[in-house]
Design brief:
heterodimer, A: mainly beta, 6-stranded mixed β-sheet, 5-stranded antiparallel β-sheet, 0% helix, globular, B: mainly beta, 7-stranded mixed β-sheet
Chain lengths: 113, 118
């Protein structure tokens, strides 16, 4: 069975600082990994995804994530935080042959002026 | 705007009642997924339909049921409602089935229906 763990339900960073949101997964088969963002009172929007190939994945709004199989991690980073990045971020795992994604519990990012 | 629409946006009802949530997927998408988001349980997958057929079930209660119609819209029926059913219910759609390699499998989320059970 697959699972996802997001470390830190709340993360605060200063504007302009590095954003690092952590995600570890568990999967017995090669996973597909996703990061979604949820702004207040909105649905989830895909930031980026890893399926196969290059392990460093670039997404929208300057975010990127690196798939590290040896560490079973898919951490989300952004070099410089903007106020508009304040939102909740969800990591999700899916595997070929299944029809659902398993989401982590989410990390709420706060950006301080 | 993801292209997925959900109605109603808000729903307030009493315990023991039954409600129906509606979802229209993006044009061309065949898969519809339902998720429940609550403070204590996070984002939980409930059920998935593909082209009218149920394809996967998650943590869906027996009091809940869903269907996907020939025009591909989907409805989630919640009955004998309890206080604990208060949550945000999301619908998502994708072209194909989740978990595959292609871009077909990206899920696009609707804005959600906020259900409050009093």
């Amino acid at each position: 069975a697959q699972s996802v763990t997001q470390l830190g339900s709340h993360v605060s960073v200063s504007e302009g600082a590095l954003v690092l949101l952590r995600c570890n997964y568990s999967s017995s088969v090669p996973p597909y990994l996703f990061w979604y963002v949820q702004y207040p009172n909105q649905g989830l929007q895909l930031l980026l995804k890893y399926t196969t190939g290059a392990t460093l994945v670039k997404g929208i709004n300057g975010f990127e994530a690196e798939f590290k199989k040896s560490e079973t991690s898919f951490h989300l980073t952004k070099p410089s935080a903007h106020m508009s990045d304040a939102a909740e971020y969800f990591c999700a795992v899916g595997t070929s042959g299944t029809y659902k994604y398993i989401f982590g519990t989410g990390t709420r990012l706060k950006v301080l002026a | 705007d993801s292209g997925v629409t959900q109605t109603p946006k808000h729903l307030i009802t009493a315990t023991g009642q039954r409600v129906t949530l509606r979802c229209s997927p993006r044009s061309g998408d065949l898969s519809v997924y339902w998720y429940q988001q609550s403070l204590d349980q996070g984002l939980q997958f409930l059920i998935q339909y593909y082209n009218g057929e149920e394809r996967a079930k998650g943590n869906i209660l027996e009091r809940f049921s869903a269907q996907q119609f020939p025009d591909l819209h989907s409805e989630l029926n919640l009955s004998s409602l309890e206080l604990g059913d208060s949550a945000l219910y999301f619908c998502a759609s994708s072209k194909g089935l989740a978990g595959g390699l292609s871009s077909y499998n990206e899920q696009f989320f609707g804005p959600g229906t906020r259900l409050t059970v009093l």
